[in-house]
Write a structure and sequence with these properties.
Elements lengths: L1 E6 L7 H11 L3 E5 L10 H6 L3 E5 L7 E5 L4 E5 L9 H6 L5 E6 L2 E7 L10 H20 L5 E6 L12 H4 L7 H11 L3 E3 H5 L8 E2 L11 E2 L2 E6 H4 L2 E6 L15 E5 L8 H6 L2
Parallel strand pairs: 1-2, 7-8
Antiparallel strand pairs: 1-14, 2-4, 3-4, 5-6, 6-7, 8-12, 9-12, 10-11, 13-14
Helix pairs in contact: 4-6
The chain binds one DNA strand of 18 nucleotides through loops.
Length: 278
DNA sequence: ATGACATGCAAGGCATGA
């Protein structure tokens, strides 16, 4: 099973690039962020004509998330209220469309677009911290169903120095501040692990390059798009890749896709037990 | 310290992103 995530910075502007990459990469599920389109205007037909199913949770101009899959998903849930129906804060935060999840072959895939926060002095920064606190409650509620979890998206947080091209200068600023890092780590708990870091310990691997100041040409990026797996799925992970070349497209998104390959459903290695049945 | 660049909205520059 291949699961991918991509902040496309407008699904309509990036439509041909997304369809092309789907055709080349053939994920079972692609999670999109920043679709920037209200649901009635989502280019649904273009995806369906290419053989994809789409679940959407969008809004006009800003934010917006979607799930693109070969097979239909089960139990699609939108917003934090999808897991926290009686949580007033979850309902308020849901005014910004940033959360969608679905069940694919028994795996709960959760697609997030975490608020950016703008700067430490902005009112958007405490909003980001509040949002991450709600994410923790959301994950606690989700865990009670016992589904294997794959949580992906644009986290707008680089958790470690090795995730930033210039950590000496940028550590402590927004996307790399202690409070937001702590809030994300709280949400991850002991349950979720970064799939990319299971395979690649080194710095120099980025998923986002600023449009400004020639960041792409100078390879000055951040790794802020992540795939987190529960322990059961981590044991079945075979690779995790950042598809950097997409950032070099004409009129690219400022983010590159990230994908993980899982041996799911797990191979039947209980041959001895099966033999005992006969 | 500021702005670079890109997108949406809507028709002139803002709001937003990261």
């Amino acid at each position: 099973m291949r699961i991918a995530t991509w902040n496309v910075n407008s699904v309509r502007t990036r439509l041909e690039q997304v369809l092309c990459w789907l055709e080349q990469t053939k994920p079972d599920l692609l999670c999109l962020q920043e679709t920037k389109v209200d649901d009635p205007l989502f280019p649904m037909q273009a995806f369906e004509n290419a053989g994809w199913q789409v679940s959407i949770h969008g809004q006009k101009s800003y934010n917006g998330v979607a799930l693109v899959s070969r097979e239909p998903l089960e139990d699609v849930r939108c917003g934090f209220v999808g897991e926290l129906p009686d949580d007033a804060e979850a309902a308020t935060l849901g005014e910004q469309r940033r959360v969608i999840s679905g069940l694919l072959d028994g795996v709960r895939v959760l697609n997030l677009y975490v608020p950016n926060g703008s700067s430490l002095s902005s009112e958007k920064y405490p909003y980001k911290l509040t949002w991450l606190g709600c994410l923790k409650r959301y994950l606690d509620a989700q865990a009670e169903r016992g589904e294997p979890l794959c949580m992906v998206g644009d986290f707008n947080i680089a958790l470690e120095a090795r995730d930033i091209h210039d950590p000496d200068r940028l550590s402590g600023s927004v996307m790399a501040s202690d409070a937001e890092r702590d809030a994300l780590r709280e949400a991850l708990g002991n349950r979720l692990q970064d799939a990319f870091r299971m395979f690649e310990p080194d710095a120099g691997h980025w998923s986002w390059w600023d449009y400004r100041t020639g960041a792409w040409d100078r390879d000055r990026g951040w790794r802020i798009d992540h795939i987190y797996l529960c322990e059961e799925l981590m044991g079945l992970a075979r690779s995790c890749s950042i598809h950097k070349q997409l950032r070099g497209n004409v009129q690219p998104s400022d983010h590159a896709p990230v994908s993980v390959d899982l041996d799911w459903p797990p191979a039947d290695d209980d041959q001895d037990e099966d033999d005992q049945l006969f």
